[in-house]
């Protein structure tokens, strides 16, 4: 069982979470954590390193601009349902002004996070795994060299 599956099992099947009915920013809230957990796990799989180094690499990969780039790599693979979730997340009223990314990057990152949150809460771990592998592949290759 995957970590995502383990967490859902602890909550129980009747956790009352229906991804289809949740607000897009709620999905993005969960998806942000899914994204960061994948990044941190994949960095560890590359080899043990000092925590400061891991944190620096992770920070560069989880910022809005990097998430927007990652999303761009996989958007063409989105199903119709995933594309609809992405659009809802991208178009949601965020209420904050990004400091280190353009508004377009921030919106794209939020849309991607919404898709990941939706997939996680729907129990679609394999789909998350396949999207994240493609989304992060070039970034993680560069992270090894820094």
Q: What are the SSEs and their pairings?
A:
Elements (H helix, E strand, L loop, with lengths): L2 H9 L12 H22 L5 H12 L1 H11 L5 H12 L11 H19 L3 H20 L2
Helix pairs in contact: 2-3, 2-5, 2-6, 2-7, 4-6, 4-7, 5-6
CATH superfamily: Ribonuclease III domain
Class derived from helix and strand content: mainly alpha
Number of strands: 0
Catalogue the unreliable spans: none
Radius of gyration based on Cα positions: 15 Å
N- to C-terminal distance: 33 Å
- The multimeric state of the shown protein is single chain
CATH class: Mainly Alpha
CATH-derived topology:
Ribonuclease iii, N-terminal Endonuclease Domain, Chain A
Shape: globular
The number of helices is 7
Binned strand content: under 5%
Task: State mean pLDDT (0 to 100 scale).
Answer: 86
Main pleated sheet: none
Helical content class: over 70%
CATH architecture: Orthogonal Bundle
What does this structure look like?
The protein is an all-alpha fold. The chain has a single domain, classed as Ribonuclease III domain (Ribonuclease iii, N-terminal Endonuclease Domain, Chain A, Orthogonal Bundle), CATH 1.10.1520.10. 72% of the residues lie in helices and 0% in strands. It has seven helices and no strands. It has helices spanning 3-11, 24-45, 51-62, 64-74, 80-91, 103-121, 125-144. Helix 5 packs across helix 6 (103-121). The protein is globular. The termini are far apart.
């Amino acid at each position: 069982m995957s970590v995502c599956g383990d967490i859902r099992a602890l909550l129980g099947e009747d956790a009352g979470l229906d991804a289809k009915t949740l607000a897009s920013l709620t999905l993005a809230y969960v998806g942000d954590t899914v994204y960061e957990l994948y990044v941190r796990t994949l960095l560890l799989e590359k080899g043990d390193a000092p925590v400061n180094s891991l944190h620096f690499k992770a920070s560069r990969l989880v910022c809005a601009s990097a998430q927007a780039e990652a999303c761009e790599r996989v958007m063409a693979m989105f199903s119709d349902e995933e594309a609809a979730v992405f659009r809802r997340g991208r178009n949601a009223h965020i209420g904050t002004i990004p400091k280190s990314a353009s508004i377009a990057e921030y919106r794209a990152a939020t849309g991607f996070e919404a898709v990941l949150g939706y997939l996680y809460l729907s129990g679609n771990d394999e789909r998350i795994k396949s999207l994240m592998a493609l989304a992060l592949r070039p970034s993680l290759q560069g992270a090894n060299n820094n």
